[in-house]
Structures are given as C-alpha cells and as structure tokens.
Design goal:
Layout: H1 11-32, H2 41-70, H3 77-111, H4 119-151
Helix pairs in contact: 1-2, 1-4, 2-3, 3-4
Length: about 150
C-alpha cells in the first residue's frame, strides 16, 4: 500500500482524527448547554451520532499517535478495511444527523420567522455548523481510507 497524507500512522492522519473529535465534541457541547434540545428528536440524534464520532475518532487518534511514536504506518489490509467501514458508517450517520438538525434549525429561523428559544437558537446553529465541519473531516478520512484500500 502506498503512503500518502492522511493515511493511518501519519501526522496528517492524526490531525484529521483530532479535528473530527474536536468538532464533534464542540457540537455536543454547544447542543447540551441548551435547556430544551431533548424536546427535538433530530437534536437527540445529533448528540448520539456525534458521541459515536468522538469515540471512533479518539480511538483512531490514539492508534495514529501510537504509530507515530513507534514510526510505523498501518497498511494491514484487514485493518484498513475496518477503518473504511467504520469511517463510512460514522460519516453517513453524522451527515444524516447534521442534516436533520439543520432542517429543524431552518424551520425555526426561516420558516417560522422567529425563534422562541432566544439564545438557544444560536447554540443550535453553532452545533449544526460544528457537526457539518466534523462531517467534512470524516468524509475526507473515509475517502482517503477507501483510496488507500483500493491502492493496496
């Protein structure tokens, strides 16, 4: 397998995983600081999806850091296949959750013309924005993993 930026065990791979984890944790933090997010199923789904993303990205960031310390690159086809499946599953869940939450947020801001929750609406928007940023980094990682598997 070829070694290019973003593959497991490289610095760019570690940075991608850390950014996924930070954006997902920021989305969770922004949403959970509101008092009424649990009233909306889409927001609860966003919390669950981003929670899964934090766990997945953190574990893979630890593996990348371990590989960097040992100066070893993960190119085992079975391990890369696991990364591909995990990345695509979490990417799909994250995009679905961010899109559903964005739909609810747009409903309150645009369609209803107002938001009765005050400051919470801005937190909802922040959470959705961070969820989309997390999805962009997850999508990047999943494409790199698929490319690595195909090049193998």
């Amino acid at each position: 397998m070829k070694d290019f930026p973003g593959t497991p065990g490289t610095l760019t791979g570690l940075l991608l995983r850390i950014s996924q984890c930070v954006f997902a944790a920021g989305s969770i933090a922004s949403m959970t600081t509101t008092s009424s997010f649990f009233n909306f199923t889409a927001f609860c789904y966003l919390i669950a999806s981003m929670g899964l993303q934090v766990i997945w990205s953190f574990v893979l960031a630890l593996l990348d850091a371990n590989a960097l310390v040992r100066k070893k690159v993960f190119h085992n086809p079975v391990l890369v296949s696991l990364f591909v499946v995990g990345d695509w599953v979490t990417a799909t869940l994250s995009l679905a959750a961010a899109s559903a939450s964005a739909g609810i947020t747009v409903l309150y801001f645009s369609d209803l013309g107002r938001c009765n929750f005050g400051n919470e609406c801005q937190k909802y928007q922040m959470s959705v924005g961070l969820a989309y940023l997390s999805w962009v980094t997850i999508a990047t990682s999943s494409l790199i993993m698929l490319w690595l598997l195909a090049a193998g």
